[in-house]
Amino acid sequence: MSRQFPSHAQVVIIGGGVVGCSVAYHLTKLGWKDVVLLERKVLTSGTTWAAAGLVGQLWASSVLTKLAKYGTELYSRLEAETGQPTGFVRSGSLRVARTEARKSEYDRASGMARAFGVEIEQIGFEEARKLFPPMKTDDIVAVYYQPNDGHTSPVDTTRAMAEGARLGGASIFEEVKVTGITLKNNAVYAVNTDQGKITCEYVVNCGGMWAREIGEMIGVSVPLHAAEHMHITTSAMEGVYPGMPVLRDMDGYIYFKQEGEGLLMGGFEPMAKPWGMEGIPESFEFTELAEDWDQFEIFMTNAIQRCPAMEEAGILHFTVVPESFTPDNKYMLGEAPGVRNFFVAAGMNSVGIASAAGAGKAISEWIVAGHPTEDLWEVDIRRFHDWQANGRYLQDRVKESVGLLYADHWPYNQPKTARLARCSPVHFQLAARGACFGVVSGWERANWFAPEGVEPRYEYSWGRQNWFEYSAAEHMAVRTRVGVYDLTSMAKFRCQGRDAKAVLQRICANDIDVPIGKVVYTQLLNQRGGIEADLTITPLAEEDYFIVTTGAMEVRDFDWISRHIPEESQVFFTNMTSAYAMLGLMGPKARDLLSTLTDADLSNDAFPFATAQQIDFAYARILALRMSYVGELGWELYIPTEFAPGAFEALMTDGKQFGLRLVGLHAVDSLRLEKGYRHWGSDITPDDTPFEAGLSFAVKLDKGDFIGRAALIRQRASGLTRKLVMFTLEDPEPLLYHDEPIYRNGELISSVTHGAYAHLLGCAMGMGYLVHAERISDEWILSGRYEIDVEGTRIPAKAHLKAPYDPLGERVRM
Ligand SMILES: Cc1cc2nc3c(=O)[nH]c(=O)nc-3n(C[C@H](O)[C@H](O)[C@H](O)COP(=O)(O)OP(=O)(O)OC[C@H]3O[C@@H](n4cnc5c(N)ncnc54)[C@H](O)[C@@H]3O)c2cc1C
């Protein structure tokens, strides 16, 4: 394609699949022309060529949906722009629900979709059969139609983006293999290839299933693994016509697409086959794997059930090609933690054609702007930890993650494979007491406790799940007596050294120049004033800070802080997560109970709220922080790991007299929401400022300069146009999870960031940002009539400016 092999480029993209070409295209669209794309064989010869080409807009979350929606927009206009046909057909698509539960999922998703301008409507069976004549409908509950979905030719679409990139100034080299990457001062410096070296400022790893080994060249963890992925094409079938909509039958794990006069049928099986355990052969190029009819049987059985003519149809071709999958079935975007200017866009989980446009645009904007231009946390590579590139873990997990795309997207769904990766030291003690565990960042965490005689096992549904009442009792125990939860998964860092205070003062919005032992709740902001992290910082000694953040943010927050430690400063920043267990002892009787296990004076005078002390606790010496994420009197007990099992037993023994109850993290979530505490990643993100999020109490503009201060000052002067508001549903029955549309005076205005059941209040609660272009005021917020859409029904809701439970925050200071 391009001839002159360069010795320097601003950006080198590794991989000429649909993702690499999309990144090249979008970088040039943003005006970056010194872009080089390297492909070890020829364009599309990895996985891209084999795709069925479905381009669906609606996925399980708002972020994925927004990115996929752009795909249909771009692919429909690329030909006019580049002269290269894409094969895009806006055929529309149908999705059927075989069960009431799946219908609930689609009804909820439809509400979310509308909030992002994705059209979807439920249609009748007759209309559905007209649109897709081979389909049988007598065993389904509902059908939905999305007129703007489509399908495209993966090879032609990739070529069109490559052509667009070339027209925009990019150079594309085929038959060039990247063999290594050179770093200087932890930043990208050069890419080594079998044709020579290219020095560069940025590298984008778009290596598909090779992305893990490309990351390994510089010690960057890219947790993905290949699995066999397959579809068949059939001979001519009655009723099939050009432009027929795509059909998804997720309960049967399958999809259909018109292919010539027949159908293309493939799917996402619940137990997949990992591939490439011994590495990917050097010769891999448009490679097909051996047919496996046993593996395909589950698809065939379901396909015949949905389209009976499949039974008699001839099979023209059986395609089996490996595709890369990630542990959570979501792709990976972003700058790798620990290495500057090394970006990753990979692990597409078989939605790479549909998502490449959005992913390529998002990562290009991130590179050019220096930060993501919209919230991408759900697909951010920093959600993964180093250890998750462990081969055995990936092989075990990928068997399950392939099927997650079409599986029921139950609220609180937990993985079944690759469990017991990271366990708290009291894990088996909790298990013996009925804990039902969920997983976050590999951590097994007790989400709820089954009473004696009840099996600790999830029974999923969109309504009240089997643990609802147990979790409600845990919730109430914390409100009325005392409860203990294990949050060992919290990430703990130590920031020490001569310049620790100065460095932290510059990245924290709150003032951390406080007396030793004072706990500071603070946000870390970006230059736009958006919230990058939400954590507590406690000076344990001069220039020695203990930092605690949530487990899911361990990699992200560690990376953010590390990147903001100037090279010349003397600071030692250490991840101490494994050093401590953390038990949260919370509730009005927490002081009485804790007093039985320590000689420390726990009175308000001696140990006030938001302070920390080293105390003796059972046989251990621990760090106790008087803080609360649940809105009650309580202490977070940071216990050296090896002391935790013994200390926990002592606590359980002494706790009996106070009615101590083990509490799971579902209850912690409902407690915190009821109290109006925010959660990073849903209620607060890099796109929200502390003022908008109602966290101005944690901002000290007058403490001196800090990152984001100038933006906050500007925002204060211009006034707010959006604000995070709490909502309670007036009907006690419906449940809120996330992304439910919020209506104000009958008009769709926003959606729920996160919802849960407020057990004390007796209704579901959620938060959401309200926007009012001409400055938002409390009067404007309170004067609205609100409804929240739950499964297609609008439920009246009440807006709250302050937490409806303990609005003055008196209980934590009891
Ligand atoms: C059977 C099947 C059906 C599918 N159907 C759909 C569908 O309907 N819709 C959908 O959206 N998605 C579908 N997909 C998924 C889609 O094909 C992938 O998600 C997508 O193609 C991934 O693109 P990529 O650019 O990440 O990877 P690839 O296309 O694999 O590109 C990566 C490239 O990197 C190159 N490379 C690797 N190492 C190096 C190196 N060291 N130096 C230089 N180059 C290197 C490789 O040669 C390769 O060409 C399907 C996949 C399969 C297998």
How would you characterize the overall build of this protein?
With 814 residues, the protein is an alpha+beta fold. Helices cover 25% and strands 28% of the residues. The protein is built from 18 helices and 37 strands. The strands form 7 sheets. Strands 1, 2, 8, 9, 10, 11, 17 and 18 form an 8-stranded mixed β-sheet that branches. A hairpin with a 2-residue loop joins strand 28 and strand 29 (620-625). Helix 2 (62-82) packs across helix 5. The structure holds flavin-adenine dinucleotide. Flavin-adenine dinucleotide is lined by residues 14-20, 38-41, 45-48, 50-54, 154, 177-178, 206-210, 214, 229-231, 266, 319, 321, 323, 346, 348, 350-354.
Number of β-strand runs: 37
Q: Describe the biggest sheet?
A: 8 strands, mixed
Number of helices: 18
Global Rg: 27 Å
Strand content: 25-35%
Brief digest:
By secondary structure, this protein is of the alpha+beta class. Helix content is 25%, strand content 28%.
